[in-house]
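Sharing in case it's useful to others searching the archive later.

Someone asked me privately for the predicted structure of Sel1 repeat protein, so I'm posting the question and my answer publicly. Question first, with the sequence:
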Amino acid sequence: MNINKKLIYKTLLTIVGVIILAVGGLMAYLAIPSGFQSRQAEGPKVLTELLKMAQESQPFNPDPYISSTYRPGDPLYEPLLYIQRHRQGKAEELLHPLVEQGNADAMYWLAQITYDDSYYSSGPAAKLFQKSAELGNPYAALRLDSNNRECQMFMSGYCDQKWGKLGRKLLQERAEKGDKKAEYYLLQYDEDSSEEVHKELERLVTENAKNHYYQPLEKLLTDYFGNWHMPFLDRDKPLGKRKKLLLSELIKIAADNNYIPAINMVFQYKKLFKSDYIHINLIKILNLGGDLIHCQNYYINKSRKNREEIIDGTSCAIAKDYIRGEDSEMLIFNFSLKKNKLDKLTSEELQKAEIRAQKIIKEMTPMIYIDEMNPRP
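And my answer, the predicted structure tokens:
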């Protein structure tokens, strides 16, 4: 049997060449930015109108509900507050009567908090999404889109392209009537990666911020901090001092208008803010019903000998447990005291903390930051 060595060598060289081309193509894809990525790489300085708003804005809007999805008195305010507080059972109790009345938004939320409870709950939840969509809720329709990963995971028998088409159609109708929120979410389905799409994103983030809807700004800030839209090989590059300063100014726009996720960012990136600004936002966390873990951590990290501040931190843990109907936060707080070699509270100190916790709860004016496209607290 004759072996054609030249043919073998030629074949091997061809395979090696194909591999080199493929690797080169992949490296080029990872390294060469699209127009969208190039615009993103310019950083937050491109958000000129928002940055101007930051310079001209008055600190701390007195209206606690200015950026809230719903206000007290709206039928959905209390159910969503319970969802936000991880008390699904109470939310369901309040949503069922609204669903029976034909409230499409209530149908969406009841479906949202039950679809992944178990295999048996997915069917009823999917039917609620369907009914809500048929009544004109675009966000319910999008939950049943065949391209929706969660639909495929939990409601696969109900996913269909027709729901995605309906959802985008309903968004388009709302956008044409001036709904900037709908226009923003419609843009998320644009697969174009051009510079123009990023400029349109900048415009819609700005327009929604003017309306005190800060979810788009929050997402863009997260992308900037994480370099998520940068070429893969550039994602680990640290942010420069100038970019960080501009990002902190943009965080302030939403935080000063009582948007809890932005206040959370103040604590997440606390090195970017002065201590007095952090303390003011700590008070706002208490007033707005934000995550009281920030309060607990603030006093644990700040206090070593000041027992009054330890009592304040304890009151936050007690308030959070009361709000959520559990006792885990006090267990965690007591563990933190032990870890930091701080004495446990005496019975007298604990009584003071309980009184302060009741005061925190009584004076709260909780805002709602979750919505249909960002439904998880």
